[in-house]
Amino acid sequence: MSALIKATSDRVPAGEAVFFRSFFAMPVIFVWLAWRHELRTGLKAVNPMGHVWRGVVGTMAMGLGFAGLAYLPLPEVTTLGYAAPLLTVIFAAMFLGEEVRAFRISAVALGLVGVLIVLSPRPHGAVGRDGPSRGPSARRSWLAGRSSPGSRRCSSASSSIPRPPRPSSSISR
Questions:
Q1: Residue pLDDT, tens place only, 36-49
Q2: What separation in angstroms does the CA of 132 have from each of 54, 73, 136, 140, 141?
Q3: Is 89 within 8 Å of 48 (Cβ atoms)?
Q4: Model pTM?
Q5: What angle do CA 122, 69, 83 make, to 5 degrees?
Q6: pLDDT of 125-152, one tens digit each?
């Protein structure tokens, strides 16, 4: 679904995508409740205002998630989605007073390090058709990209493309 939202984000606004996702989910929910013979009890709310707030917050979260898909690359949005359970542990400890022991803290810290590695900025021009940019770290990044079989920018097809000649750097005064 994220890939479809990303692909259509230039033509379909996030609010419209939220509406149609919710609209087409309703018949599935009604059929499921009818199949379980819980159609009458499944639609009754014990705390109606709680359901209203949950709906408002859920709709806003979905809309902001769809907007994030429009403005960010898909891998980054997916990584941020995978970080949600890690942030839940942190926020539960901060706001709800949950007791978090050392093992869970270390697991959350390790997970956040992984998220930061995935979301870390890449050097501009480090991987591309023109080869490595200047600097030893950019060269290492370029070599790592060239050696990975799944690299989309440096696949075997792009390595056979001849490079354009570099412009001369003559400065006239």
A1: 999 888 888 889 99
A2: 50, 23, 9, 8, 8
A3: no
A4: 0.59
A5: 70
A6: 444 444 444 444 544 444 445 444 444 4
